[in-house]
Amino acid sequence: MLSGCVSAPPSLAPPLIVNQCATPTPCTLPASHPINNGELHLQLEKTEAAWARCAAEVDAVIACHEEGN
């Protein structure tokens, strides 16, 4: 008898995949204690970068919610 002619066991149900939006993490800023103008400028750059990362994460969560996920 051909193998294609026998009863096959029922296939397993596909795994359930839930797509949901990521949970944002709290925004944090780096600690600072600048001593001179050079350190103050560097701290400003670090702070701006931290805000940019935070804003990007918030924007991604908002976009996900707008897509209905």
Search tags:
mainly alpha, 69 residues, 0% strand, 43% helix
Q: What's the arrangement of secondary structure elements?
A:
Layout lengths: L36 H30 L3
Explain this structure.
The structure is a single chain. The chain has 69 residues and is mainly α. 43% of the residues lie in helices and 0% in strands. The chain contains 1 helix and no strands. The longest helix is centred in the last third of the chain and has 30 residues. It is rod-shaped and about 85 Å long. The mean pLDDT is 84.
Strand fraction band? under 5%
Give a short account of the largest sheet. Answer: none
Number of DSSP strand runs: 0
Main structural class? mainly alpha
Overall geometry comes to rod-shaped
Short description, anyone?
This protein is mostly helical.
